[in-house]
Design brief:
The complex is a heterodimer of chains A (274) and B (440). With 274 residues, chain A is mainly alpha-helical. Chain A folds into two domains: 1-120, Up-down Bundle (Four Helix Bundle (Hemerythrin (Met), subunit A)); 130-274. Helices cover 76% and strands 0% of the residues of chain A. Chain A contains eight helices and no strands. Chain A starts with a helix and ends in a 10-residue tail after the last helix. Chain B has 440 residues and is α+β, with helices and mostly antiparallel strands. Chain B is built from ten helices and 19 strands. Chain B has helices at residues 2-12, 14-33, 40-47, 49-57, 67-95, 104-108, 128-134, 161-182, 372-391, 420-438, and strands at 112-119, 140-144, 147-154, 184-191, 195-201, 207-223, 229-240, 243-250, 256-258, 261-280, 285-292, 297-299, 304-314, 317-327, 333-338, 343-347, 350-368, 395-404, 407-416. In chain B, the strands form three sheets. In chain B, strands 4, 5, 6, 7, 8, 9, 10, 11, 16 and 17 form a ten-stranded antiparallel β-sheet that branches. Chain B is elongated, with a radius of gyration of 38 Å. The chains are: A mainly alpha (274), B alpha+beta (440). Chain A binds chain B through residues 63, 124-125, 127-129, 131-132, 134, 185, 188-189, 192-193, 196, 199-200, 203-210, 212, 214, 217-218, 220-221, 224-225, 227-228, 231-232, 235-236, 261, 265-266, and chain B through 14, 17-18, 21-22, 24-25, 28-29, 31-33, 35-36, 64, 176, 185, 224, 226, 228-232, 251-253, 255, 262, 264-266, 365-367, 369, 372, 375-376, 379, 382-383, 386-387, 390.
């Protein structure tokens, strides 16, 4: 068993997780919920094994480094963090139906990682600029933030659907709204830490903590977006549908920051482009 | 006076904050799709003369340092200062409030409130302080006649969390301003064996005196098996008046700092020159020459003539050099030497050790930024402020006891400024503790 096999399996297990959670909604059988959770947890453990194994494999190749250094590794970690966060939320708030909205994000991420021809899966050595302890701190904090915003967007979609259909399998609107808020707050703090660790790393590598590089600028734009959302909610009393839509649009900004910048714009962060 | 109040309200408003943040977010996008920092001709070629002129008027090529962008940041700063000055007094009043002066009527009207009536023949109540302590609350008490009021609170300072976040943004701006005015950013190329006392400004390439010399003793690149660069390393020595002050091998992510100026490994340039070391094996004498490609040089004392007549390279990087070597009148010999590898050769009956190393210049980013630590302080404050604002709740509980002829009344009240469901649970726990104390 090697890491690429384990990670390959992960794509399909997350697809099955999605189907199990969606089945709850479609067949109106909450009882499938426990099976869905158990299956997702096992799938997540398998993915954890895959990531850990890839880390070990890089050392066996003599070019040891944490598996967070190219687009493939980052998308895999992104999917991993989404599921980890989702399972944490499910455990804390006991609402299994959120899985139907959150797990698809993880599945789509893994599907892109596994099947896209644009990105390379091979373990390659680190160029000098990436040889730093800040790599782990910066990538991990950013991706926990991204994953939280993904879950917030999932909850936003859930809110909109509940608002229109009033499906009784979905929790009450105030409950969903509260969760959207909590995940946005969580994401905001981790994104702040991600931007800060990036700045400190940039200063030790290039002598400048901020250079208005497209990646840096877009991460700031995303940060502004969620800061505006939090202000609108806290002090202007916005809640409900408006916040749900902001959570969804915010994720578009996150996707552009993560992915669009690497492929559509030029700059210092070209490491992510495959 | 009225105008002042209106202006103050405007600059203290959330509306302004949201407007300014929106403006900053949207305009920032412009600088990511229109390339920054290019010469005027670039914009003419790409967008046409008219658009390029329009961009020039609005400072679009340097938009993040333009008057209007900095103006938005200025409005944001003013907004942050005034909104905080506007709201902090009220917050401080809550933090420093005399909570033991709260009336029992107010306690009954609180969001969380519970009353107990105990008859006159009810056994003596347990020490209320101890009960509250059991629930995790260290209470202060104020007695008035036959009444006692207990009060306890947690995390009252967390109410300032928001303002610490606001302050942190201002601290970061101050750090950036300090760095801009008291620091510089530049670069310099230093060929091996040479030194420099100047760096060149990134802004306009004007020379910046360092106040000391930096010498490049050697530069080397290591490669992975697949040909990708593994390490760029420069051995640097800091000198002043010929005195060695510091020495460090720098790599990317591992710079050299001296007297507040930091030197970062950034790039390199390969020259068509070589550093040629000759060791006469028998005497151990060594001499170093800087040898341009295909040029002959001599070591007169030893009657040696030599030159590099050919080289094998991958791109600009020489891998092997073909050395022509002649001792006195004996026939010349030709040797292929690996780059930067000491090789023993024989020529004219004598033994020599030769080392040919292609000469490089190291490219360094040079920066001085006295504001960096202020910026980092701001970053730390921001994380602290966010934690206080979102994860700490100001919780307060009051317990009022009044004894009269008919018996004892207990009123428990509580409030929290956020995370109400969690506080509801906490309040419930307290109720249960008092319930069980009363049923003894």
């Amino acid at each position: 068993m090697d890491s690429s096999q384990l990670l390959g399996i992960t794509t399909f297990t997350y697809l099955f997780s999605t189907l199990l959670y969606v089945a709850i909604l479609v067949f109106k059988t909450p009882k499938i919920g426990s099976l869905a959770t158990a299956f997702t947890a096992i799938a997540w453990l398998i993915q954890t094994g895959g990531i850990a194994l890839r880390w070990v494999e890089s050392y066996e190749m003599g070019i040891g480094h944490a598996p967070l250094t190219n687009m493939y590794e980052s998308v895999v970690f992104f999917a991993w963090t989404i599921i980890a966060l989702y399972l944490l939320i499910e455990w804390k708030f006991k609402i299994k139906i959120i899985g139907a909205f959150a797990t698809p994000f993880a599945f789509l991420a893994m599907a892109y990682a596994s099947f896209s021809g644009d990105i390379s899966k091979s373990i390659s050595p680190l160029v000098p600029a990436l040889q730093s302890n800040w790599l782990i701190a910066h990538v991990v904090t950013c991706f926990i933030g991204y994953a939280a915003f993904a879950v917030a967007a999932a909850l936003g979609i859930m809110y909109v659907i509940k608002n229109r259909s009033n499906d009784n399998l979905l929790p009450p609107l105030p409950v969903i709204d509260d969760l959207v808020h909590k995940t946005i707050v969580f994401g905001f703090i981790w994104l702040t830490a991600g931007i800060i660790t990036g700045a400190i790393w940039a200063n030790s590598a290039w002598g400048t903590y901020w250079s208005w590089d497209p990646k840096e600028t877009w991460s700031l734009i995303t940060w502004f977006f969620y800061a505006i959302t939090l202000h609108a909610r806290y002090t202007r009393g916005w809640a409900g549908t408006r916040i749900a839509f902001l959570a969804i649009f915010g994720f578009v900004s996150v996707l552009f920051t993560y992915y669009g910048v690497n492929f559509l714009l030029s700059g210092l962060h070209s490491y992510g482009s495959g | 006076m009225k105008l002042f109040n209106q202006l103050w309200a405007f600059f203290a408003s959330v509306k302004l904050a949201i407007f300014t943040l929106c403006s900053l977010a949207v305009t920032s996008i412009i600088g990511t799709v229109i390339r920054q920092g290019e010469p005027y001709s670039f914009y003419v070629t790409k967008y046409g003369a008219k658009t390029a002129q329009f961009f020039h008027i609005l400072d679009i090529p340097e938009m993040y340092y333009s008057w209007w962008f900095l103006g938005l940041l200025g409005i944001l700063s003013t907004n942050l200062i005034i909104c905080s000055l506007d709201r902090i007094p009220a917050v401080l009043r809550i933090i420093n409030a005399d909570n033991l002066a709260v009336s029992p009527d107010r306690i009954k009207k609180m969001a969380h409130s519970r009353e107990w009536r105990l008859s006159a023949d009810h056994p003596d109540l347990a020490d209320l302080s101890a009960l509250l302590k059991k629930g995790g609350w260290n209470a202060d008490v104020r007695t008035q006649g036959r009444s006692e009021l207990y009060f306890s609170q947690k995390n009252r300072w967390s109410r300032l969390g928001v303002y610490i976040v606001h302050l942190s943004i201002l601290v970061i701006f101050i750090g950036a301003i300090i760095g801009h005015f008291l620091g510089f950013k530049g670069s310099v190329m230093i060929p091996e064996l040479r030194s420099t006392a100047i760096a060149y400004s990134a802004k306009d390439s004007s020379p910046i005196a360092l106040g000391f010399e930096v010498r490049n003793d050697s530069f080397g690149i290591e490669f992975y098996e697949n040909g990708m660069p593994k390490v760029y390393r420069s051995s640097l020595t800091v000198l002043a008046d010929g005195q060695v002050l510091e020495q460090k091998d720098i790599e990317v992510n591992d710079p050299l700092t001296y007297r507040g100026i930091t030197f970062y490994q950034s790039s390199y340039e390969a020259y068509k020159e070589f550093i040629f070391n000759i060791t006469e094996t028998t005497t151990g004498e060594v001499k170093q020459f800087v040898l341009p490609f295909q040029q002959q040089m001599t070591w007169d004392d030893k009657q040696l003539q030599f030159g590099i007549i050919n080289a094998e390279a991958i791109g600009q990087r020489v891998v092997r050099s073909k050395v022509w070597f002649k001792t006195g009148d004996t026939p010349a010999t030709v040797h292929w030497l690996d780059d930067n590898a000491s090789t023993s050769i024989s020529s004219g009956g004598k033994e020599y050790v030769l080392k040919v190393k292609q000469m490089y210049a190291t490219g360094l980013q040079v920066a001085k930024d006295p504001g960096v630590w202020v910026v980092y302080l701001g970053c730390g404050l921001m994380l602290l402020g966010l934690y206080m604002a979102f994860f700490l709740t100001h919780k307060r509980i009051w317990l009022y006891k009044h004894v009269d002829a008919d018996g004892t009344t207990l009123n428990l009240g509580g409030s929290s400024n956020k995370n109400k469901p969690a506080f509801a649970k906490l309040f419930n726990q307290l109720e249960n503790i008092i319930d069980s104390a009363n049923t003894q």
